[in-house]
Write a structure and sequence with these properties.
Helices cover 38% and strands 20% of the residues. The protein has 276 residues and is α/β, with parallel strands linked by helices.
């Protein structure tokens, strides 16, 4: 099955491919919906997703200039209230303040397709620093090695170099100007920092081009299923793939699964894009 020429690669669909090619095929090419819940208890998982999205909305509104006390009045859920308090009292330190763009979408060409990412926040001192902030509301703080290996960390920094010129006083972004910060709503004083450099940028470019080329070469009716059945534990397609395992409790999510569960799908229709 060929990839549609207008297909947009994101950190989410590329991570799905890396985790399991069959999941990528079912979800993005066949657009197959399947009813298995991702985590049990379902209500708890859904509530965490909802509160995570509500937290992102609050921070977005705050970045736009709505006063914190006005936003605070609308917060009633105890988890959301705790995260909001943590954000107000212990935000990522020393962020550039000259330009802050929340929920911004950047895109750039990649091997005949488009590479797209929505950033929670990009804070910029034009010509000097461009800092990506990603708010995480997952149940645990993932290990640095888990975050470092995720597509999000590689793709977000790479794409900011490729497509961030409009944020940098129209000057090309050098990899050394870029930094990514993961900020954890339940661990606000323990953010994780990822600097960037030209060597890593070139490695990421090579990796992403090879990954997209590999995806384009699949022509099987059923793409390979992951051999790692732990990745099936929270996948919607378990019964379709005859992976006879039951859904796990939310607190049993491995780091990378917890991270994925709270990485919200990009709604590209709802946000402004800067495209090259
Ligand atoms: S259930 Fe497992 S093998 Fe099937 S799509 Fe999901 S991750 Fe892949």
């Amino acid at each position: 099955m060929p990839i549609p020429s207008n297909f947009q690669f994101t950190q989410g669909n590329l991570q799905d491919y890396v985790d399991c090619p069959r999941r990528f095929q079912l979800r993005y090419l066949l657009q197959c919906t399947w009813p298995a819940p991702q985590a049990e208890p379902l209500a708890e998982a859904e509530k965490r997703m909802e509160m995570g999205q509500a937290f992102h909305r609050l921070v977005y509104q705050h970045t736009l200039g709505i006063p914190a006390d006005v936003l605070t009045r609308a917060v009633t859920d105890p988890d959301l209230a705790r995260w909001w308090h943590n954000y107000l009292t212990a935000p990522p330190p020393a962020l550039p303040s000259r330009l802050r763009r929340a929920e911004i979408v950047l895109s750039a060409p990649l091997s005949g397709y488009r590479l797209v990412a929505k950033y929670d926040l990009v804070a910029v001192t034009p010509g000097e620093r461009l800092v990506i902030v990603d708010w995480k509301t997952g149940p645990r703080r993932p290990a640095r090695s888990t975050l470092e290996s995720r597509l999000q960390t590689r793709l977000y920094r790479y794409l900011l170099v490729e497509a961030g010129t409009p944020l940098n006083e129209k000057q090309p972004v050098r990899p050394e100007q870029v930094q990514m910060i993961y900020w954890f709503a339940d661990y606000p004083t323990q953010p994780e920092y990822f600097p960037y450099d030209t060597g890593q940028f070139l490695a990421d470019s090579d990796y992403l081009h090879r990954l997209v080329a590999e995806i384009g070469q699949h022509n099987e009716a059923i793409w390979p299923l992951t051999p790692d059945e732990r990745l099936c534990l929270f996948c919607h397609y378990r019964s379709l793939c005859a992976r006879k395992i039951t859904t796990g409790p939310l607190n049993d999510l491995a780091d990378e699964q917890a991270t994925a569960l709270t990485d919200f799908d990009v709604d590209l229709e709802q946000v402004a894009e800067i495209a090259l």
